[in-house]
Structures are given as C-alpha cells and as structure tokens.
Design brief:
D-Maltodextrin-Binding Protein, domain 2, 2 domains, 12 strands, transport, cell membrane, NrtA/CpmA_ABC-bd_dom
Length: 365
Amino acid sequence: MRLRSRVPIAVLAALAAVGVLASCSRASDSESSGSGSAAATSPAAELRLGYFPNITHAPALIGVDKGYFAQELGSTKLTTQTFNAGPDEVNALLGGSLDVAFIGSSPAINAFAKSNGEAVRLIAGAASGGAQLVVSKDITSPEQLKGKTIATPQLGNTQDVSLKKWLKANNLEIATAPDPNKVVVQNLDNPRTLDLFKSGQIAGGWLPEPWSSRLVDAGASVLVDERTLWPNGQFPTTVVIVRTAFLQQHPDAVEALLRGEQKAIDFIASDPAGAKTAANNAIKQLSGSALAPNIVDRAFTELSFGLDPLAATFPQLSKDSVTAGATQKETDLHGFLDVTAVNAVLKAAGKPPVDAAGLDRPKSS
C-alpha cells in the first residue's frame, strides 16, 4: 500500500517539475516576442485611448468621430482622453491610466526607455510628415535665427527633438534666456505659440499640423519642412503604442482598435473631403472651435497616413534624442516593436505587411 501511495506522488512531482519548466519556457517566449500570445488572454471590459486634437492624429480623430473604433471593439467600452504633447501622455500611460496611445515617435521611444523596455510596445503607425519650422518672413536662413525665440510644444516631444537636432547641425547654440548669438527654444502650448507669434514676441516654431499651417496663415513662412531631412521624405510623426500588459492580456482588443484605425485611414483615402470634415468636427468638439477650411486643406496636404510605423527610422530617432539632449544615451530598441496585430489587420485587408526592421526581436545575448 505504501508503495502504491508513493508512485502517484512521484509522478505528480515529475509532472509538476515539467509544468514549471514549460511555464518558464512560455514566459520566456512571451517576453522575448513581446506579443504575449502565450499568456492567458481575456476580453477587455474597457480600452482607454489617448490622442491629440491635431491633424497629425487624424486617424484617431476620425476613428472616434465615425465610430470605427467602437464598432470594431464591440462589447469593449472605449474611453478616450486627449493630450497636447507626448510627455504628458507618456506619464499617463506609464502611470496606468491609459492602455493605448497615439503619440509622437520621440515620446514613444522615451516611454520604452523609461521602463527599461518593459512597459510599452510600438504596434503601428498613423501619420508621416506634417511638421515644419515656420518663422517670420524676414528670416530666410538658419543664421538669422540668432537672438530669436523659437517654440516647440513641450520639452522632449518629437518637434522639440527635431528642432534641437537641426539647430546643432547648423552650428547654432541653444539658450534658455535671450542671447544675441544663440537661439532660445521655448516650450509652449500650441495655442500660446500662435498668440505670441501674432504679437511678435516669438519668431516662430517647429510645430505639427495644424499649428504650422495656422502660423503660415498668420504670416509665417516655412524655413524647414522636416520631410526634406529624411530619406524618401518619410518619418513617423504619429505612432501607436500600447501598455505591454494590456497587449498580453487583450490582444484581440488591440487588433480590433487597429482595424478601426485602418477603416479611418481608408476613409481618408477614399473621401478626403469627408475626412477633413470629420477631423475638423472632432477638433471643434475637443477644443471648442473648428479650424478654417484653408488650414485643414493645407494640413492634410502635408501629411500621409498609414499603419506602417516606419520602423527603420527609429534607430536614427533614438540617436537624435541624444543629440537634442532629450536622453543621455541611445535606447536599445530591440523588442520595442510588436507587429503581430498590425500585420494581421493588413493581411485581412489584402495589404502587404510592415517591415519590423529587426525591432521585434530581443537583443541577442
């Protein structure tokens, strides 16, 4: 009897050991892929989405306004929150009050770096282009920026990094107080930038749409179109990132959201006039006032929209953050990108997959 009692115990012990090893193996696979496909998943009761009331976030504006996200999410409740700059949105994401965010490329990198590559994953693109250095018309060369004040939306945001990298490339020193031989970079909310430009208190700004177009409408001219600084004129202005834990627990909800985004992008392509109206309606609801039609028209011509996050540009963007002083060292971006959901959506739509440029793989040991 004792012998028979020991056999099941031994077998159970062996099975438990195998189970532990298998569990460790699955956990390792999940962590290395970043997809969480092997983790236990469940329907999401709610998806909390962050985005900006900017034309650069048109797929998000339209996805909410036209109900595309809600339709695809089904029983999952969509809760939205808007932001004016990426660093604030990163804080909300890392603090656990957001699940998914449409965001600039530089804050996306910073969120990954701040969490030591753990808390967020890049899952899709949204917009490329749509950022310019616009200045008063008497300024026609970089040298003439000396002694002037140029605005960006927030310290460390995508346009702030782009401006500071460009200033350094043109041997222009950055100051925090007026200096006749340096350029003052001031971080301002976009509406404040417009007001100060109109009153002549600042010379311009490196701004996303529609704010660059609004300054042009107020008398500014384009000194630098950021598209001219990138191969093929493409750089990721807006991308989509998700909390890693949410992606692992609710991959179906993430894929559903991206299906809604693809619907919004298809709508922009098939009905540009309707897309402009939908985006402007959303901006009016969020900010209290609509944009002038000529502003919307110009802003849309400066942008292209798509689910491709342009992964190959991110190593350079990481270097740019160091050059601009936003980060102290380059971020190792291995494991940053998870293309599982976006490529599933693109495949279903009959579109080619995005290139992960190796960023979907963990750093080799």
